[in-house]
């Protein structure tokens, strides 16, 4: 059986944050994937090779890249055979990461030994600069993992490590703001004041990355009132900030936004305030496809 | 003599904003360039062909693109001759914008008439898809402008149209936050609490785009104290918001940032809070090169 080997971004891996980060990421993966999951040598190993897992992993914040890997014992003979089975034709190279420093061979040794073995067995050439196949070999504490394809995820931090926010969700810009906050590790509770299909579909999209709660206030209120209600919900949810999708000048100038935010007890975070359709990757969110959302009717 | 024809972004050109936008942009250009400047048919015309002007125009927020253009009277014979002089060899096409609807020929007419004239005079071919030279012809109210090269500026809005903010300037991220706010039309007053050479050089870079005022507080204070002092300066400067370069998680988590911003009377804008070194164009500011900064020693 093959396993999924998951690598996370190194951004928050300093000191005591590391273990919080790893624990939270495993918790978030377990929410989406029903399989045996464990840590090994700074990676997360998912003991399952169901292809659907790949689709989920692509969307979970905190995952930098992952791979569906062959497993070998910490034995160079077995590693050689497994590596050989991964190369079919064309050019290749071996790229070893030895996280387990007790393993008796260095990464350079392993590259050389495995490379020579494959060269002797197959009519194939080494190309270090631009190979058709790269065999990645990861020597971890318990086992060795081998794969040829890295699949990149959305990156960022696991949802929940940075705290909780209330986002005013109304359309594309606020959905993007919510998504960016999720990728910075925020747990997101969304509030909407109109209940259009659009909003439900954005909430669904967001929930593909991490579960979100959506409060729907079934009446039209002023922007000032929205800020007030968002603060009420924040108290209830123990959230520490309000997030808006406001953009200058479409949402107003500095003075009008400043007046509006002044009504908030909690600080208002403005992650997309300087976004410019022309220059910024607003479509970053569009790339991400959908699942189940918890919808609560909130009567104010 | 040739002139510079300046095109601005269309983002804020709806309704009453348009004239404010244009007035401010002309005012900002006049600060950097000593030449006769006027509006014509939704463009700004600078009656000077000094190459140095180009370097300044590239950096002024609100300018989408500009060109050093030949001037012709609103006379098709003169337009034909001027267009001919702009094409040397290879393939070409003509692209006409007729902003002056009183001109008797349509854009398509002009493309055809001028194109045929050049074909008869020179051994050269038309290529509509991928020409080596494109002759842009702009039929404006008073004159016609012809050029072959569009030079792109930083885009955005003219500084000053959106209001005034205080930015806490300490390094690259806060400089980027300041720059992005400038591009959204903010007048920026920067405050620094350490007076490193770095900060002065960032302030100089920013001032290439638009003049900024820099307050230097010659003592080290806590972040809480920084927020308090920034608010004091905001009152004095009649600014409507505080801008920070905080990024999650490097600058703290949501709760700690929320606590910090709660100390501010004015809302705190966070344009780079979700920026991720890997994915976002943090080097967007780095592209921009420098001038004079007004430095005020502020003794708290």
TrEMBL record, chains A, B:
Organism domain of life: Archaea
An example molecular function term from Gene Ontology annotations: RNA binding
Biological process annotations from GO: thiazole biosynthetic process; tRNA 4-thiouridine biosynthesis
Organism field: Geoglobus ahangari
GO cellular component: cytosol
Swiss-Prot/TrEMBL keywords: ATP-binding, Nucleotide-binding, RNA-binding
Cited SMART domains: THUMP (SM00981)
Cross-referenced InterPro entries: Rossmann-like_a/b/a_fold (IPR014729), ThiI_AANH (IPR020536), ThiI_fer (IPR054173), THUMP_dom (IPR004114), THUMP_ThiI (IPR049962), tRNA_sulfurtransferase_ThiI (IPR050102)
Classification via Gene3D superfamilies: 3.30.2130.30, HUPs (3.40.50.620)
Protein's name in the database: tRNA 4-thiouridine(8) synthase ThiI
Database matches in CDD domains: THUMP_ThiI
Domain THUMP as annotated: residue spans: 51-150
One Pfam assignment: ThiI
């Amino acid at each position: 059986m093959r396993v999924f080997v998951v690598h996370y971004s190194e951004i928050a891996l300093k000191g005591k944050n590391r273990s919080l980060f790893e624990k939270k990421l495993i918790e978030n993966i377990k929410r989406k994937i029903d399989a045996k999951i464990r840590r090994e040598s700074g990676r997360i190993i998912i003991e399952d090779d169901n292809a659907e897992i790949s689709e989920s992993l692509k969307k979970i914040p905190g995952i930098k890249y992952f791979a569906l890997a062959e497993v070998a014992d910490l034995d160079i003979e077995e590693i050689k055979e497994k590596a050989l089975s991964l190369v079919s034709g064309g050019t290749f190279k071996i790229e070893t990461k030895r996280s387990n420093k007790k393993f008796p061979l260095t990464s350079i040794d392993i590259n050389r030994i495995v490379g020579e073995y494959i060269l002797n067995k197959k009519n194939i050439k080494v190309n270090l600069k631009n190979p058709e196949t790269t065999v990645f070999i990861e020597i971890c504490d318990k086992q060795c993992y081998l794969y040829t394809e890295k699949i990149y995820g959305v990156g960022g931090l696991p949802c929940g490590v940075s705290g909780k926010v209330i986002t005013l969700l109304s359309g594309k810009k606020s959905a993007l703001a919510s998504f960016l906050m999720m990728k910075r590790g925020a747990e997101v509770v969304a509030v909407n004041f109109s209940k259009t299909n659009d909003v439900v579909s954005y909430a669904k999209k967001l929930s593909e990355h991490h579960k979100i709660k959506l409060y729907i206030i079934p009446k039209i209120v002023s922007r000032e009132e929205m800020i007030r209600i968002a603060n009420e919900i924040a108290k209830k949810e123990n959230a520490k900030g309000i997030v808006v999708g406001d953009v200058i000048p479409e949402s107003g100038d500095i003075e009008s936004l400043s007046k509006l935010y002044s009504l908030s007890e909690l600080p208002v975070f403005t992650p997309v305030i300087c976004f410019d359709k022309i220059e910024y990757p607003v479509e970053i969110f569009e790339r991400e496809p959908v699942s189940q959302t918890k919808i609560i009717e909130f009567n104010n």
